[in-house]
Design brief:
By secondary structure, this protein is mainly α. The protein has one domain (2-319). The protein is built from 15 helices and no strands. The protein is globular.
């Protein structure tokens, strides 16, 4: 349906050939905007219902009650995948979890996964790359958060939190259950309002990413990047990851760019390493983390996550 609408707009409204450069550009932009908008609204509403019954305080209690063989890291990483936060907006939750008594390693599992894998990003990923790639990406992201958080938890890094955060962790958090007895019907107006708020915040990034992706799709020749970044180039994934660090975007904005890069010859794993670096290892995130972490902890955190992202990039290049 969306493709037919895009065909009509490009051909009959803009009077462009579907195989021309600008025709491909506008068709890519219109088709993906319609498809992704539909998926965004549907998934955000669905997860809004889930999140309304599983608030942050309940997450804190849930995680605190399960400390066995790293299962708490897996649960934290999975919960990070179920929350629609970018790396910067995840940091207030990071502080709240620490204050609630959740160990630093477990909290880091949440912080790592939350911007990389969430329902909004997965909806777009599924619409662009299909079910198989989306499932492998989601599992990889959750395992990345689980394993890295677990490893960092063994290092007893709490002493590298900023002093004010260490003092905050000692305080008791107050439980709140004022919304616990609301029915679904009573929750729906708030869920809809929150869903539209998330959609409005996210959609400009989607449009920006789609615009860049559309230009690449319509005007960059197929195979253009292959001469620079090939599957056999062992340095391609590390270089892509490091180049991503100075940049910042959320997953919803960068995924369409990844789609266009892949269509022009960049291996999927290399493109994903770039995307995950942009989303999870940005300089803005480092500046925000500086408020809660000392430099040594930031270096350890970024270095460990960067290595894990590179491994995922190599894995995807092997599998796809």
């Amino acid at each position: 349906m969306f493709e037919k609408v895009a065909d009509i707009i490009v051909r009959d409204l803009f009077h462009l050939g579907l195989q021309s450069s600008w025709g491909k550009t506008f068709h890519f932009f219109i088709y993906d905007t319609l498809k992704i908008s539909f998926l965004l609204v549907f998934i955000i509403l669905l997860m809004g219902v889930v999140n309304s019954y599983f608030p942050v305080e309940r997450i804190r209690r849930f995680l605190n009650g399960r400390k066995l063989w790293g299962i708490e890291n897996f649960l934290a990483s999975t919960l990070g995948a179920l929350t629609p936060f970018c790396s910067c907006s995840s940091i207030p939750l990071f502080i709240g979890f620490l204050k609630g008594g959740i160990p630093l390693g477990v909290t880091l599992s949440f912080l790592i996964t939350s911007p990389l894998v969430n329902e909004v990003a997965l909806a777009i990923f599924w619409g662009i790359f299909g079910t198989k790639v989306t499932v492998v990406y989601a599992v990889s992201g959750i395992l990345l958060g689980t394993i890295v958080g677990r490893l960092l938890g063994f290092l007893n890094l709490d002493r590298y939190l900023q002093d004010w955060v260490q003092e905050l962790v000692k305080q008791k958090i107050q439980d709140s259950a004022e919304d616990a007895k609301k029915t679904l019907k009573e929750r729906l107006p708030e869920i809809w309002q929150e869903a539209m708020s998330v959609f409005k915040r996210v959609f400009p990034y989607v449009l920006l990413g789609l615009s860049i992706g559309a230009v690449i799709h319509g005007h960059v020749p197929a195979g253009y990047f292959e001469q620079y970044i090939t599957r056999d180039n062992m340095f391609a994934v590390p270089v892509a990851t490091l180049l991503a660090v100075p940049m910042y975007a959320n997953a919803t904005g960068i995924i369409p760019v990844v789609q266009s890069l892949v269509s022009k010859g960049i291996p999927l794993g290399t493109a994903l390493a770039f995307m995950m670096g942009v989303v999870g290892l940005s300089l803005p995130e480092a500046l925000l983390l500086k408020k809660v972490m000392k430099i040594k902890l930031i270096v350890i955190y970024f270095g460990t996550v960067a290595c894990a992202i590179m491994l995922i990039g190599f894995l995807f290049n092997i599998l796809f």
